[in-house]
Amino acid sequence: MSLLSVLKFPDNRLRLKAKKVEQVDQNIQSLASDMLETMYHQHGIGLAATQVNQQISLIVIDASENRDQSKVIINPKITKKSGDSLYQEGCLSVPGIFAEVKRSQEIDLEYTTLENIIKTDSFDGLTAICIQHEIDHLEGILFIDYLEPHKLKQVKELISSNRANPNAHIQVE
Ligand code: ZN
């Protein structure tokens, strides 16, 4: 296992779209395990392959309190959404910045597991929010894209002035 480096906004590679995984092989398994290690190391609750400069449809998450519910999700597709939730999100690619984003409260997700099995599961709460955030990464979308223009401007200023860093916790409102 090894730690991977995470692309940071405004790196254009964060805008690339992921390709479908055709076969879950050893390369995918090894990437997933490196991504999990990187996610835990950086205290994130999710990481998309896009963020480690791999344009494939693969995300890892763990939104549990005890950090012991890791999940590898391949080729995710949301088949149903319901309810609204508002949650203050952050992102390992936009370190130090936090802002509220509106997502669906519950989702049905079709995906492939590391064992190459296609499943459909329902998720809600923080796990559902995290999955929606990570799927966005696979499409080249960042959570700050949802902010109103004046808030986005604030984020860009914070990043270019280097006031935002992993140890800061700047809430954009
Ligand atoms: Zn993110």
Give a short overview.
With 173 residues, the protein is of the alpha+beta class.
Explain what the structure shows.
- The structure is a single chain.
- By secondary structure, the protein is an alpha+beta fold.
- The protein has helices at residues 26-41, 125-138, 149-160; strands at residues 46-48, 58-61, 71-89, 97-112, 118-124, 170-171.
- The protein starts with 25 loop residues before the first helix and ends with a strand.
- It binds zinc ion (ZN).
Q: If you compute it from the alpha carbons, what radius of gyration comes out, rounded to the nearest whole angstrom?
A: 15 Å
**Beta-strand content estimate:** 25-35%
Mean pLDDT, to the nearest integer, reads 95
Following the backbone from N to C, one meets helices and strands in this order, namely: HEEEEEHHE
Structural class: alpha+beta
Number of helices: 3
In total, how many beta strands? 6
Broad shape: globular
Characteristics of this structure?
single chain; alpha+beta; 24% helix; 173 residues; binds zinc ion; 3 helices; six-stranded mixed β-sheet
Write the layout of secondary structure elements.
Blueprint lengths: L25 H16 L4 E3 L9 E4 L9 E19 L7 E16 L5 E7 H14 L10 H12 L9 E2 L2
Parallel strand pairs: 4-6
Antiparallel strand pairs: 1-2, 2-3, 3-4, 4-5
Bound molecules: zinc ion.
Zinc ion (ZN) binds next to helix 2.
